[in-house]
Amino acid sequence: MIKEIRVARKLVPLIRSYNWVVIIITGLGILASLAEGIGISLMIPLLQSLESEAFQSNQQQGWISILESPFQSFSPEYRLAIVAVAMSVAILLKNVLVYANKGLFSWFKQQVGHRLRSSIFNRLLNINYNYLESKDSGELVNLLAGESWQVIRALEMLVNIVISVCTLVVFTVLLLLLSWRLMVIVGLLTLVISVIVQQVTHHAKALGRQTVKVNSELASLMCEGLSGMQTIRAFAREDYEQQRFDKSSNLVKKTFWQLELLYGAVDPLHEGLSTFLVVGVLVVSLLQDPTSLSAILTFMFMLYRLQPHIKLIDFYRVNLLATEGGVQAVTQFLHHDNKNHAIAGYKAFSGLQQKITFNKVNFGYSKDNSLALQNISVDIPQGKTTAIVGPSGGGKSTLIKLICRFYNVTEGEIYVDGVSLNSLNLHDWRERIAIVNQDIHIFSSTIRENIAYGKLEATEAEIIAAAKQAHAHDFIIEMPLGYDTPVGERGARLSGGQRQRLALARAIVRNPDILILDEATNALDTLSENLIQQALEVFSQERTVIVIAHRLSTIEQADQILVLKDGQIVEQGNLSQLLQNKSLFNQLYKLQYRNALPNS
Asked: Sheet holding 373-381: strands in order across?
């Protein structure tokens, strides 16, 4: 039972708010077992009432005498009917209690399940971003959609074990009152049966952990396959991906089949061994005392009713151990000490007044890797446009992630108007930022909802105005349902340019203090890019704009340009100053325009 107790301890923190429910469920289970036990025990006076002389005999002692005494005052012609009614009432009460218990337990499971899924999702929303990037999406999806259900299953198994054990105790007490000698024999034989079942099913825990692993791997393959379908087809890798999927799916099939075999072994083992037990005890008892037929029949019937509960205890125990892997995965994820939690900050932020300052900032994605940014010291002034350029892998996007506080700096400090960024209320800070990423995410909802995501309370007029400013209105009104057109998974029904315009409209409707454009026009043709640039010039007035661009033509009007290479700022200034330096920026600028000359 040590393994079962270990799983139970992991579940206790998840149901601490519902201790009262567990107490009521257990109490109802005990009352239902007691009602059933008493109803079965009434078989003794029922059978003896068929023979008046046997019923009126005063030789019965103990529990049997207590059962008979309430009916001795009734005349023989009514006694049988009264005992039958009493039995029926007891059994009816038992079923009412069982139904009430099931209803309460069903509500309990759904409540805990909802809170658990909500807690996991809340944790995903608030943990450090580097933790999310270090995990496969399939693993996280499996945790939220799969292993959370395993926890609920574990909880169900645990409560059922408690109820079955309570039933076992109640029936054992009644059987002891009927015949303690027979009960001792039955108890020893039952213990032997349970040990045999445990030996047969001892692999359940290891298989349970294996199911978590293979499920996560299959979920990762499914996510990759769905998101990378275009790449798969473009490289004609359908057969290769099918083989990978089939291999993983087969492993899931094999693991769950082995687990089902273990589950299935519990029932026939108990059924077969218990049958020999019941028949053996009945034969031995009748040979010793043929006159106590009614008591022995009642004992055997109660024992027969008890056997399923003993069998279920082993069944629930095997299932509980099988869920330990899922319980372990969920509880570890929800534990705050095993990963950094995003610090919310305590100072309110009402808007950028002066500048964002990087003061000797170093940053590495992990302790084992080299620094992605080194000794960054720069001011980003309010109301100005700051462009960030440089070779790929130079640290441009990392700089943006630090400003958005997706990560915390490794060394140094970022200040906002002289106040540490980490001390600002994170929600207040991000509410003042709008970002259009290089990797645009469009939600699988309508066009209207995607634009309004930038400002949930946006009016219809604000949404349309933002769409017009982003040059998205024209293609939107041509859609089948206009602004109410569903865009499909990640905007699959839209072109790359259309998705980018929606993302721009989402940023515009937000009306942010700080606008961040990470390759915001890279999917647009030259004409559309010029239109967007014109719109951004108007929208960017008196606004702090940070632009990452490979097309140097998009940042010619920037107030300052930062050139990053290998995580360091190697140049800084406006366009004319950087061109005069005849350094890296000058080389990039000339190279890009030289390549463009044949097409001009």
From this structure: 373-381, 355-363, 411-416, 419-420
